[in-house]
Amino acid sequence: MNWPTNGEYGEAIQNHQQTLADKELRAGQVATNAMGMPLTWSGNFAVVYKIRCPNTGNTWALKCFTRQIPNLQQRYQIISEHLRRVNLKCMVDFQYLPQGILVRGRWFPVLKMRWVEGQELDDFLEANLGDRRLLRRFLKVWMKLVEALSAAEVAHGDLQHRNVLAVDVDGQQYLRLVDYDGMCVPGLLGAGSHECGHPAFQHPQRLAEGTYDLTIDRFSQLVIYTTVHCLRVAGEQLWNRFHGDNRLLFSSEDFAQPGRSELFRRLWRLDDVRAKALVGRLALACTRPIEQVPALGDIVTPDGIRPLDDQHYQQAERLLETGWAAPAVFAAAAAPVPGASSPPHPTPAGSTIASTPAEKPWWLEPGDVSGGSWPSAASGPQYDPPQAPQAPAVGTRPSGDPSEATLADLWYLYKDGAQYGPLTKAELDNLVFARMIDASCYLLPEGKRRWRRAAEVYPELEQVYLAELVEVATPEKNITAGGKNDWIGPVLIGGAVGLGLAAARGGCAGAIAGAMLGAVAAAIAWGIGGWVGVGVALFVMFLLLRQ
User: Where are the domains of the chain?
Assistant: First the structure.
C-alpha cells in the first residue's frame, strides 16, 4: 500500500468534514496555528492532529499513519481488549478506525485517542528542578505506575520524555502514558514489533535486535528513575550541561559505552549514596544482556534504594572511573550469552509470566533483603588486591574467549609471544593495544586521577609492568622508564643551532639568548611531535633569525 505523506494528510484534514468517517470527528474543530494551518505532531511513521469536539466536550488526538505497519489492526485490537480488561488509570482511551480518513480517493486507517492536556516529562522536570519535594513525589508516583504496569502484564515499549505526561487534576499531579504503538501485552508475545523505542531510553541490545517481551520497559524505567533522582541531587547543573531536545540527560552513546561517558562519570561522583546505587546498576545493566536488566521494584523497595554490594560496587567503580569493565561484564555486552533463555512464549490472558530467574539475580546483594546499611560514600567498599597473573608458557595457546581475558593476562601473553586461542600474534597485538589504550590517559592532566583510581583497584599495575604498559600504549612518544632522558638530545641540538644562528647576528649576548630559545623550543617540540616536531621548530627559528 502506498501510504499518504504528511502533506497529503494535511490537505485532507483541512477538509475534515468530508474526509473523516467518524461522526464525532467530522463535527469537531481541527486545532490550527496562527496562520490557520492544522497543528501537526510528526513521528517516525505517523502524523498527529488535535481535534476539539464542542458537541461532546471531548478532545481527540487523530493519528494518521505514513508507512506500513504489519498487522496494524490486529495489534491495536489486542492491545485495546487487554487495556479494557486491566483498566489502568495511567492509560487513555483509544479506538482503531480501519476506515478513518479519505486521501486520494482511498480510505486509510487512523487511531482516535483521547487528548491529554499535561506537561511532557522534560518540561515538567525543567520547571521543577529546584523543587526536591515535588521530584521526590514524582519518584513515588513513578514507582506506583511501574508496579501497576507489571501487575497488569503491560509493557509500554517506548517510555520516554515525550510519552510521559504530568497531568494536574484538582491540584494533584498524575502521570499519563501516551503512544501505544510499541506496546506489548500477553496476546502479542512472539509477534515482534516494528517499534524499538527512543534510543536515549533503550538498552543497546534492544536497539540492535528488536527485543520484544513483557520486560522491555525495565531499562527505560530505571533510566527515568535514575535521571530524576540525580536531578534532585544536582538539578540545574546537570540539566544545563547534559539536557537536550532528544533526551533528558542520557543519550544512546552513554548506554553503548558507559565507561567512556562523561555523564556516567559525573553521576557516579555525586555525593549521594543512593545515586551511586542507581547509576552503578544502570551502567552495569548497559553491559549485560537485556534479559538481565533488573526490575525497578528489586532496586527500589519500601525500605529505600538498595545499596550495591562490594562486588558490584567494585565493578561499577572500575567501569566508570577507569573505563575498564570486568570480563564478566563486557562478555555479555552485545548479544545474549550462549544458552540464555529465549523470550517467553504467548500465554493465556490472565496468567502470570514469571519475572524472577531461578538463580539469584546479579543486582540483588547477599544478606538482608530489607536493605541494610549504606556503604560509606567517602571510603566505598574495601577491595581485595587481585592475585598476580600467571604467565603462560611461551608458545602455548590458552583456550577461552579473548574478550574475557584480564588485561594482565593479555599483557603477559603479549610479552611471551604466546597466542590466545584462535588469535595470531598480530591479532593479539591489536587486542592488547585496544584494551590498554585507556592506560595512556594518565599522561594527560585530566587523566591523572583516573589512573590513580585504576592503580587502587590493580596495585600490581604500578609495581609489575607500568613502564612497559606506557611504552606499548604510546610507543611514538618514547616516554618509558628506560627512555626518560631521551629529551636531552633534542635540547642539545636545539641549543647548538640557536647558538650558532644567534651568534652570527648578535654577538655574545645574542648567542646566549639564541641557545636558550633553541633549547626550549626543541624541548617543547619534542614533547609534542618527537623528532618531526623538533625539525619544524628549528626551521621556524631559522626563518625568524634570518630577518
Answer: 6-114, 119-325, 402-477, 485-547
CB 211 within 8 A of CB 205: yes
Q: 3-class SS at 281?
A: helix
The pLDDT value given to residue 263: 96
> How is residue 197 annotated by DSSP?
-
Cα distances (angstroms) measured from residue 510 to each of 269, 500, 502, 537, 545: 53, 10, 5, 19, 11
Per CATH, the homologous superfamily of domain 119-325 is: Transferase(Phosphotransferase) domain 1 (1.10.510.10)
Given a contact cutoff of 8 angstroms between Cβ atoms, the answer to whether 250 and 263 are in contact is yes
Nine cell digits for residue 535:
625539525
Tell me which residues of the chain have a pLDDT lower than 50.
325-423, 433-455, 457-485
Give 128's contacts (C-beta < 8 A, 6+ positions apart): 134, 135
pTM over 0.70: no
Nearest to residue 323, comparing CAs of 457, 204, 223, 216? 457
Distance CA 111, CA 113 (A): 6
Residues contacting residue 136 through CB under 8 Å, at least 6 positions apart? 232
Q: Provide the pLDDT for residue 348.
A: 31
> Hey, what CATH class is 6-114 in?
alpha beta
Quote the pLDDT of residue 223.
98
**Dihedral sign from CA coordinates of 79, 85, 90, 91:** positive
Rounded to whole angstroms, the Cα distance separating 279 from 198 reads 20
